[in-house]
Write a structure and sequence with these properties.
The structure holds 2 protein chains of 2 kinds. Chain A has 18 helices and 26 strands. Chain A is an alpha/beta fold. In chain A, the strands form 7 sheets. In chain A, strands 1, 2, 3, 4, 5, 21, 22, 23 and 24 form a 9-stranded mixed beta sheet that branches. Chain A has a 5-stranded parallel beta sheet with strand order 11-12-13-16-20, with helices on both faces. In chain A, strand 12, helix 8 and strand 13 form a beta-alpha-beta unit. Chain B is α/β, with parallel strands linked by helices. A 9-stranded mixed beta sheet of chain B has the order 5-4-20-19-18-6-7-16-17. The longest helix of chain B has 16 residues. Chain B is globular, with a radius of gyration of 23 Å. Chain B starts with a strand and ends with a helix. Classes of the chains: A alpha/beta, B alpha/beta. Strand 18 of chain A pairs parallel with strand 8 of chain B.
Chain lengths: ~550, ~425
């Protein structure tokens, strides 16, 4: 039992704006005062400290064959030593981190949940092995559907029942959490050396278009009633002028509704928010995208904010990765995966003096500032935009125009004419930024017990050395940054796991997965699945992951 | 008659997963000669031993823990023929001990890993190759003998989505001698030993439009034949180079692979090409992937400073042994005494060796502590990665009294933690 005393609580889901109050914890949950025996509680004095829910990262590449190939390809990333072996594990990594390092670094920063954003279905067992190796946090993974031949077949036939059955079957088999879509149709086109360029391009070999793929997957996802919406990485990522494709894709959500959450989440939008016709005249399309997102009540986005310094581009968007390799001449890994998907990896460094990188940096911030705080979650698309350990930098930037002015003066002046960042006066409040890093990503994912401190919530709590009642977040940005970098206390499921940046207790969190089998007639698709398995190199009987192979599985059943 | 379906083979890197195991007869169907022999009854190490005397598992593990905890820098080597669960414990044990973790790749496909560090790995799963590859080149690889069902299941005569049968696929073998695989090829290119790099460079020159700079012959191959091969590569819709030890362990080693990857990068500007190593042991991929996520590197990892350091020229097992830079060794699922150079084996004979293995081998003869284990895929369940990284769950089909590698290492780790405090 825990008694967090006298803290200043900010809890946007429960509309608590910086109130001095006590929080009680029992059996890993937040409980009311009368549920605990105070004399048996461990007391944490949080006087004058900020008390919030543990951070929720809704989109990061933390486990599976992509990040692990990244590690293999980039031993230079592993030369940064973060922890020496002793009571706890040795951890290393600059931006790419080892699995133990991922858990420790999230915990130090007050984050307690993170979701792997792209899992090739056939590789699910590998993803889960790595998720199991990450200590401290709760986790989950999103299997990819946007280039899977079986999905194309259901869509060609316009058979929604079959598509629902396929999704329910696949997320059960992969112990996945929802429906991720990466460059729909484009990765299949890459198998022939191409890509798709618009929502209406036909996918080679199939009578389907990206527009149909996205729309039908949203329809199936909503009819199944999955906790999370379709999670879309748009077509044309990284291409100047792509903001129009992004807007068109966002508008595909029109006509669908869900009382609990968005029906479409568009991810790392920064990479899909470019105006212009080439990198010579590229500019920001953030304002136009923000306008559209703000005008709709069923779409959310996350930033994909670049952080100056090292990064590694790794996505399921294999054709984009090859383009990036040609552009930079850097190392390139690629993985065409059965008849399901593909992926690529290219090292990257964001330089403040480089006009394109500065532009990307500014666009990420524009999106964070211009989009309604109830619709934009904070991410760096780790490790594509850079480390998740710099979330505090992004938080501080969103809250302080003064900080942005300082940063703007050290980046390439191209951003002054190509973006509107300098003229944006918006300063997000602490309440909004806490929402963007806790309650909003939890709501977007459909995790009801995460991201808030209401009764019954998981006791994932972060305490920061920052008094919101006495801090001017606009002026004291350095203090804000420092406070969020290292939580004074990180509490996971009621246990103190990290204190002032030191790991004090190694725990292993749960892996959430969604079981929607009752919402679909699985048999409707099994004949096609069996037929398609002739094009696999594994037996259908050996496909998938059993619950007992996972360390702490947590099944969320959709009924 | 009870028959277990979809049995996963734990012999070579092809990890065929379509076996049918007759529990009464203890015989497997569908697997090749190599796989079938793994699944038939064989001589086993009968019981745990210390100094040749049979003891209990507990006693043997206690002795092993003592040896390891008292060592300054133990070498933990092998890992390619066990499951990921055991490998993970092995990495954590090496970290706890301040020892060296190394695995079989360091004497096998590790030059390919070095090339990945230089240029990346533009690859594909075997299923993609089976469905799409209309040109397959085996370079310094002889699957007909080393991976007998590879051709049938994934590459030569595999029936795929776009490439329906053998007739629709061109198969090329590049090797220093006419191998069994070469006899199945549409085109065989025989090169002089040690000339892989030069031949790859020649192909790059031709494909980038600089054929005129070539002499009349490169690496024993006439220019006309090289042009023929380059034209075939350019005409492929989707091509794959599958390379073997003939490239990684001949002159040039990692530079050969690096050059080949550059060739692949060039080809992808006009048509799709991928490259992938023909990995040997059934879970040698896991032996590299697991330490990569646990410690950041695939092999040759030293933990003596309390954090992982990677340096193949220093910390690969042969180098460590040659330098006499380890004072104890734990050998799991491997036989370095039979396969390492004499000078390395010489040091192995002088230090206390602990072996964990289901089967007796040369290393058993020099081991102080021998701990027999269950065979993964037959007597034990666990995860392994096929040569292309596809994860497969190995099945437990038969009951056994042997402990699994995972259980042995779990106990060993516990005791080492106690001794180390």
């Amino acid at each position: 039992m825990l008694w967090i005393k006298n803290g200043i609580v900010v809890d946007p889901k429960n509309k608590i704006k910086a109130e001095k109050m006590d929080i009680f914890v029992k059996n890993g949950k937040i409980v009311s005062e009368k549920e605990v025996k105070k004399e048996e509680c461990k007391v944490i004095d949080a006087s004058g400290k900020l008390v919030v829910a543990g951070g929720v990262d809704m989109h990061a590449h933390i486990a599976g064959s992509k990040i692990n190939t990244g590690r293999t390809m980039r031993p230079e990333e592993m030369r940064v030593v973060r922890n020496i072996a002793g009571k706890f594990r040795a951890t290393v990594g600059r931006v790419l981190l080892t699995a133990p390092a991922i858990g420790y670094e999230y915990a130090k920063m007050g984050y307690t949940t993170s979701f792997e954003a792209a899992q090739p279905p056939v590789g699910a067992l590998h993803t889960h092995e790595e998720l199991d190796a990450i200590p401290m946090i709760d986790k989950g993974a999103l299997p990819v559907f946007g280039n899977w031949h079986l999905v194309f077949k259901c869509i060609e036939e316009k058979n929604i029942e079959k598509l629902k059955a396929l999704i329910a079957w696949a997320i059960e088999r992969t112990k996945g959490f929802g429906v991720k879509v990466v460059n729909p149709g484009g990765v299949e086109a890459w198998m022939y050396g191409g890509n798709v360029k618009s929502l209406d391009d036909q996918v080679p070999g199939f009578n389907v278009t990206p527009r149909e793929i996205i729309t039908m997957l949203i329809k199936a996802n909503e009819e199944l009633g999955l906790p999370h919406s379709v999670h879309l990485h748009c077509n044309n990522l990284g291409v100047p002028g792509n903001f129009q494709t992004t807007i068109e894709s966002i508008k595909l959500a029109k006509g669908f509704s869900n009382s609990k959450r968005q029906v479409l989440h568009v991810t790392h939008v920064q990479f899909n928010a470019y105006a212009g016709s080439s990198w010579r005249d590229a500019a920001s399309g953030a304002a136009e995208i923000a306008k559209v997102v703000n005008s709709m009540d069923n779409v959310t986005i996350d930033m994909g904010q670049p952080i100056f310094g090292h990064a590694t581009a790794m996505t399921g968007d294999a054709p984009f990765q090859f383009t990036l390799h040609k552009l930079t001449g850097a190392r390139w890994s690629n993985k065409d995966t059965e008849v399901e998907t593909g992926a690529g990896i290219v090292p990257l460094v964001y330089l403040p003096n480089n006009p394109v990188h500065a532009l990307q940096w500014a666009i990420g911030l524009e999106l964070g500032l211009l989009v309604d705080s109830n619709k934009v979650a904070l991410t760096t698309d780790y490790p594509n935009g850079g480390p998740f350990t710099e979330y505090p930098y992004v938080m501080a930037m969103l809250m302080s125009k003064k900080m942005r002015e300082g940063e703007l003066s050290r980046v390439n002046a191209y951003v002054q004419k190509a973006t509107g960042l300098a003229s944006i006066d918006v300063e997000k409040t602490l309440y909004e930024v806490i929402h963007m890093t806790r309650s909003l990503p939890a709501r977007i994912l459909g995790l009801e017990n995460k991201g808030h401190l209401g009764i019954g919530a998981d006791a994932d709590i972060a305490i920061y050395n920052l008094n919101p009642l006495e801090t001017d977040t606009s002026r004291d940005f350095e203090k804000v940054y420092k406070a969020f970098k290292v939580a004074e206390y990180t509490i996971k499921a009621g246990e103190i796991i990290s204190k002032n940046g030191e790991i004090v207790n190694e725990v292993f969190g749960r892996t959430f997965w969604v079981d929607a089998r009752k919402k679909a007639d699985i048999e409707a698709v099994m004949k096609d699945v069996k037929d398609y398995f002739q094009y696999y190199s594994v037996q259908l009987g050996n496909y998938g992951v059993e619950e007992r192979w996972i360390r702490k599985p947590e099944r969320l059943e959709v009924v | 008659m009870q028959v277990v379906q979809d049995v996963v083979c734990t012999f070579c890197g092809s990890v065929c997963d379509d076996g049918e195991f007759d529990v009464e007869k203890k015989k497997v169907k569908k697997f090749c000669r190599l796989g079938s022999s793994k699944f038939s009854e064989k001589e086993r190490i009968k019981a745990p031993m210390v100094d040749g005397k049979e003891v209990s598992y507990e006693t043997a593990i206690e002795k092993a823990a003592e040896i390891l905890a008292n060592a300054k820098r133990p070498l933990l080597y092998g890992w390619a023929s066990t499951a990921n669960e055991a490998i993970r414990l092995g990495v954590i044990l090496a970290e706890k001990l301040g020892g060296v973790y190394d695995q079989c790749a360091s004497v096998c496909h590790a030059p390919g890993t070095l090339a990945v560090i230089e240029e990346g790995l533009p690859g594909a799963t075997l299923g993609s190759i089976k469905n799409r590859a209309d040109v397959v080149i085996f370079w310094g690889a002889n699957p007909a003998e080393a991976h007998p069902r590879h051709g049938l299941r994934y590459s030569i005569s595999a029936k795929g989505l776009l490439v329906k049968d053998r007739k629709q696929r061109k198969v090329v073998v590049v090797d220093v001698r006419p191998t069994k695989t070469a006899k199945m090829a549409d085109l065989f290119v025989q090169i002089k030993p040690g000339y892989d790099y030069a031949v790859i460079s020649a192909l790059r020159a031709i494909i980038s439009g600089n054929a005129d700079v070539l002499p009349s012959e490169v690496g024993g191959v006439p220019k006309e034949k090289l042009i023929e091969l380059a034209e075939l590569m350019k005409s492929a819709r989707y091509g794959a180079i599958l390379y073997g030890l003939g490239v990684t362990q001949s002159r040039g080693r990692d530079r050969n692979i690096e050059n080949a990857i550059k060739l692949i990068q060039l080809l992808n500007r006009t048509n799709r090409w991928v490259i992938w190593p023909m990995r040997g042991h059934y879970n040698v991929v896991g032996a590299g992937e697991v330490p990569a996520w646990e410690a950041g590197y695939q092999y040759a990892i030293d933990f003596s400073r309390g954090y992982p350091r990677f340096s193949p020229a220093e910390f690969s097992a042969v180098e460590v042994l040659k330098r006499k830079d380890c004072d104890a060794a734990l050998i799991v699922a491997s036989d370095p005494a039979a396969h390492f150079p004499a000078v390395a084996v010489k040091h192995l004979k002088q230090i206390p060796v602990i072996q964990i293995d289901p089967f007796p081998n040369m290393t058993t003869l020099l081991a102080k502590v021998v701990i027999p284990s269950a065979v993964y895929g037959i007597e034990a369940e666990g995860t392994a990665y096929r040569m292309d990284g596809i994860p497969l769950r190995l099945k437990k089909i038969l009951e056994t009294n042997y402990w699994t590698d995972e259980k042995i290492l779990e106990e060993l780790l516990k005791r080492v933690e106690k001794l180390k405090g």
